[in-house]
TrEMBL record:
Designated name of the protein: Anaphase-promoting complex subunit 6
Region (Disordered): 1-50
Domain of life, source organism: Eukaryota
Organism per entry: Urochloa decumbens
SUPFAM superfamilies documented for this protein: TPR-like
Feature: compositional bias, Low complexity: 17-26
Length: 587
C-alpha cells in the first residue's frame, strides 16, 4: 500500500551514487529496423461471473453473521460496483449501517435514487434515527396521518419492487416497522400522543411486532380498558394462538387469580403448537412467561412467592432486566436490604448507563430508611431515562416518607403526565390529599385512578377510607367489601388493613358481631397490628364484654405501651368491670 504521508510535505528523495555494478550492466538490446515490438502482458481480468458474485454475496452474509463488518463492507462494495443491482446496493447499505457508518449509508441510499422502495426508505430513516435527527427521520418516512385507534390514513407506502416476495411470510411487515419508527421519533420529540397512536398502528399492522406493544405497556401509554380493546382488535394468524395468549397474560396483572391462571394454562396449551415434538418442551418454563407470572404475584401482594420465583429465574438468566425489576420490587416489600445491596452493586458494574441500575441503588437506600440518598439515586435514574416510571414514583414516595408533600406531589404529577396509563401516580396523589385531610380532592384523584385501572383493589380501599372519614359508613363498608372482592382468591397480609378498616366501619354501624369477625380475621396474619387489637378491644367494650376487652387492650399496649387511647380505655374498662361485678354481687 502506498504511503500517503497524511497530508504532510514529502521529504526530497535522497540521491546516492550509482553502484559500481550498475555501470557494468550491459545496455538493453537495440531493436533493429522493422522488428516488431514486444506485446505488453494483458491486464488482469476484473469482471466477475455470476457464480463468483453469488459466492461473494454469501461471504458478505456470513461476515455480517460473524460481525466482521469491515469485511462485509469491502466485499459488498465490490459486488454492488460490479452489478449495480438494487438488492446489492441495499446489501452494502445494510453492511454500512451495521458497521455504524450511518452518514455513509445515508449518502449511498440518497444517491441510489431508489428511495421509493420501502426498504431503502426505512433503512435511510434508521440511519437518521441513529444520528438523532428526528425531524429528518419523519420527513424521510413521508407524510401520513393516524387516528386514535391506530388506523393509518392517507399514506403512500410506495413499493418494494426489488425484493423477493416469497419470504414475506417469514418477516415482520415492513409497514409495521415504519409505523414503529414513527412512534419512536414522536416519542423522542415528546409528542407522546402521536407516539402512542403510531405504536398502536404498528402492532395492528403486524402482531409479531412485539417492540410496539412493549413500548405501549412498559411506558404505560394505555389504560387497562384501552389495552384490552387493542388486544381484541389484533389479527393473529392461525399458528399464532400462543402469541395472543402471551399478550393477554402480559397486560392483565390485576385480574382474579383464577382468571390469570386460566390465561397461563391457555398459553401453555397454545405453545404446544410451536414446540418440537421430539423435545416435548413448551413455553411453560420460558423466562418471559414466568417473569410475567412473577409480576402478577407482586401485584397481588404475594411478595414471598414473587421473590422465590424471580430468584430462581435470575439464577437461570442473571441479566434478564424485566425480571430484575420485579425482583427489586419484591425485595423492597420484604425488606431484604442485603440482597438489594448486592444486586444494585452488580447492576451498576454491568449497566452503569441504565436507569434500572441507579434505581436499584435508590431502592437499597429507601429500604434502610436513608431517604435523602434514595431520592438522589432515583433522581439520577430519571436523568438517565426520563421515561422510566419506577424512578419517578420512587422519587415521590421517598419525599412522602419525609413528609415533604409538595415535592412528592410534583414528582407524582410529572409521572401522571408522562405515563397516562399508569394509575399509581394519581393514586398516590390522592393518598397525599388524605394526609392533608382534603377528602373531597382525594376522592377525585381516586376516581380518576379507578377510570385508568378499575381492577386494582387498592383504589377501592382508599375510596373506602375517604368515605369513612366523611362519616359515610355504609358506603365505606360497601367499598371495603368491594376491595376484598377484587383481591385474589386467597387473602394475604397485604389486605390486613382493609379487614381492619371494614371492622371499624361495621363497628360505627353497630354491627358488632360482624366487626369482631373481621378483626379476628385480620389477626390471623403474622403482622398483627395495634389497630386490629385496639379495634377488637373497643368493640368488645361496646358489647359490655369487659373481660375480652381488657385482654385485647393489654395486647394492644404490649405492641405500643404509650398508646393514649388504649391506656385510657383500659382504665375505663377496668372501672366498668369492677362496677359490673359489684352490681352482680349486690343482686
Amino acid at each position: 500500500m502506498r504511503d500517503t504521508n497524511f497530508g504532510f510535505p514529502r521529504e526530497p528523495p535522497t540521491t546516492s551514487p550509482a553502484p559500481a555494478e550498475a555501470a557494468a550492466e550491459p545496455s538493453p538490446k537495440r531493436r533493429r529496423v522493422g522488428e516488431a515490438a514486444e506485446e505488453p502482458p494483458p491486464p488482469p481480468e476484473l469482471e466477475m461471473g455470476e457464480e463468483s458474485l453469488e459466492r461473494l454475496r454469501g461471504v458478505v452474509r456470513d461476515s455480517v453473521g460473524k460481525h466482521l463488518y469491515s469485511s462485509a463492507i469491502f466485499l459488498a462494495d465490490k459486488v454492488a460496483a460490479a452489478t449495480g443491482d438494487p438488492a446489492d446496493v441495499y446489501m452494502l447499505a445494510q453492511a454500512l449501517f451495521l458497521g455504524r457508518h450511518y452518514r455513509r449509508a445515508l449518502h449511498l441510499l440518497n444517491n441510489s435514487r431508489l428511495l421509493r422502495d420501502l426498504r431503502f426508505r426505512f433503512l435511510a430513516a434508521k440511519c437518521l434515527e441513529e444520528l438523532k435527527e428526528w425531524h429528518q427521520c419523519l420527513l424521510m418516512l413521508g407524510d401520513a396521518k393516524v387516528d386514535e385507534h391506530g388506523k393509518v390514513l392517507d399514506q403512500d407506502y410506495g413499493s418494494d419492487i426489488y425484493f423477493d416476495k416469497d419470504s414475506e411470510n417469514h418477516e415482520i411487515n415492513i409497514k409495521a416497522a415504519i409505523c414503529f419508527l414513527r412512534g419512536k421519533a414522536y416519542e423522542a420529540l415528546d409528542n407522546r400522543d402521536l407516539a402512542r397512536q403510531w405504536y398502536k398502528a404498528a402492532i395492528k399492522a403486524d402482531p409479531l411486532c412485539y417492540e410496539a406493544l412493549e413500548c405501549l405497556v412498559d411506558n404505560y401509554m394505555l389504560t387497562c380498558e384501552e389495552e384490552s380493546e387493542l388486544l381484541s382488535s389484533l389479527q393473529f394468524g392461525k399458528e399464532d394462538g400462543w402469541l395472543s395468549s402471551f399478550y393477554s397474560c402480559l397486560i392483565r396483572k390485576h385480574e382474579k387469580e383464577y382468571v390469570v391462571e386460566a390465561k397461563f394454562k391457555e398459553l401453555e396449551r397454545e405453545s404446544c403448537s410451536i414446540s418440537s415434538s421430539s423435545s416435548g418442551e413448551t413455553l411453560k418454563n420460558n423466562i418471559d412467561v414466568l417473569a410475567c407470572k412473577a409480576e402478577y404475584y407482586h401485584q397481588s401482594g404475594e411478595y414471598q412467592k414473587c421473590w422465590q420465583l424471580t430468584s430462581s429465574l435470575l439464577e437461570r438468566d442473571p441479566f434478564h432486566l424485566k425480571c430484575t425489576l420485579v425482583h427489586l420490587a419484591a425485595a423492597m416489600e420484604l425488606g431484604h436490604s442485603n440482597d438489594l445491596y448486592l444486586l444494585s452493586c452488580n447492576l451498576v458494574k454491568d449497566y452503569p448507563q441504565k436507569a434500572l441500575s441507579w434505581f436499584a441503588v435508590g431502592c437499597y437506600y429507601y429500604c434502610i430508611k436513608k431517604y435523602d440518598q434514595a431520592r438522589r439515586y432515583f433522581g439520577k435514574a430519571t436523568g438517565l431515562d426520563g421515561t422510566f416510571p419506577p424512578a419517578w414514583i420512587g422519587t415521590g414516595i421517598a419525599y412522602a416518607a419525609q413528609e415533604e408533600g409538595d415535592q412528592a406531589m410534583t414528582a407524582f404529577r410529572t409521572a401522571a403526565r408522562l405515563f397516562p396509563g399508569c394509575h399509581l401516580p394519581t393514586l398516590y396523589m390522592g393518598m397525599q390529599y388524605v394526609r392533608m385531610h382534603n377528602f373531597k380532592l382525594a376522592e377525585q384523584f381516586f376516581t380518576q385512578a379507578k377510570s385508568i385501572c378499575p381492577s386494582d383493589p387498592l383504589i377501592y380501599n382508599e375510596l373506602g377510607v375517604v368515605a369513612y372519614n366523611m362519616k359515610e359508613y355504609q358506603k365505606a363498608v360497601q367499598l371495603f367489601e368491594l376491595t376484598l372482592d377484587h383481591t385474589s382468591s386467597s387473602l394475604n397480609e397485604m389486605w390486613e388493613p382493609t379487614l381492619v378498616n371494614l371492622g371499624h366501619a361495621l363497628r360505627k354501624l353497630k354491627k358488632y358481631q360482624k366487626a369482631v369477625s373481621y378483626y379476628e380475621k385480620a389477626l390471623t396474619f403474622p403482622t398483627k397490628s395495634l389497630s386490629a387489637f385496639a379495634g377488637l378491644a373497643y368493640t368488645y367494650h361496646l358489647m359490655d364484654d369487659f373481660e375480652a376487652s381488657i385482654n385485647y387492650y393489654h395486647k394492644a399496649l404490649w405492641l405500643k405501651p404509650d398508646d393514649q387511647f388504649c391506656t385510657d380505655m383500659l382504665t375505663y374498662a377496668l372501672e366498668s368491670s369492677c362496677h359490673s361485678t359489684a352490681r352482680r354481687r349486690i343482686v
